[in-house]
Write a structure and sequence with these properties.
By secondary structure, this protein is α/β, with parallel strands linked by helices. The chain has 5 helices and 12 strands. The longest helix is centred in the last third of the chain and has 14 residues.
């Protein structure tokens, strides 16, 4: 198995280190030719607008769209979630997304950098207790379609201003932060920034299940 990590901007080395800890080979994806031999691809945390522009300038935008549309397993974290979503509520006019998971997301939905936070999440399909999650300028899932499986949600506390979404969503509404639809896994947070490899293992298992 070899997993590609989109290497135009963002947390590339962090994702590669996570898979290396699991004994899984990775390769950086910078050109269309790098897509040929990968069994799955990670769209890392970073800056979604910048990634969108670099995808176009590197001529990767359409080749990546083609392999994603054909069912290549994908794991998007933070900015990667935005790129894989079906709809972006506040993106730039020239920002593009792949639309392979039925989510509507809002960029920086929890606020800017100073409202970043960490918390523990209960994640369906994982053992070993809660998953520690790092939210940095995180996207907010405004709506999830009926075919999307929500694996973890964040219940903002009205006493914790950092966690309350900077939108009109009521403070006590449970907001999806880890979702799956078919071969696509996305998180609003950064699992690559902790030492917990369970979500990376979940993605590896998704690829293995697909190849059986």
């Amino acid at each position: 198995m070899e997993i590609g990590v989109l290497a135009l901007q963002g947390d590339v080395s962090e994702h590669r280190r996570a898979f290396a800890d699991l004994g899984v080979q990775t390769r950086p994806v910078r050109t269309p030719g790098d897509l040929g031999a990968v069994d799955g691809i990670v769209l890392p945390g970073g800056e979604s607008t910048t990634m969108s522009l670099l995808l176009a300038s590197s001529e990767l935008m359409e080749p990546l769209r083609k392999v994603l549309s054909s069912g290549l397993p994908a794991f998007g974290t933070c900015a990667g979630m935005i790129l894989l979503a079906a709809r972006i509520t506040d993106g730039r006019p020239d920002q593009r997304c792949y639309g392979i998971i039925d989510l509507t997301v809002q960029r920086n939905g929890y606020g800017r950098q100073r409202r970043s936070f960490e918390c523990d999440l209960d994640v369906l399909g994982t053992g070993g207790g809660p998953v520690h999650a790092v939210f940095i300028r995180a996207p907010l899932v405004v709506e999830a379609g009926p075919d999307v499986e929500v694996l973890a949600s964040l219940l903002p506390s009205p006493d914790d201003e950092k966690r309350a979404p900077a939108t009109g969503i009521p403070a006590m509404t449970a907001v999806p932060v880890l979702c799956r639809q078919g071969p696509v896994l996305v998180s609003a947070f950064h699992p690559e920034l902790t030492g917990d490899r369970r979500l990376h293992q979940m993605f590896v298992s998704m690829i293995e299940d697909r190849e059986r």
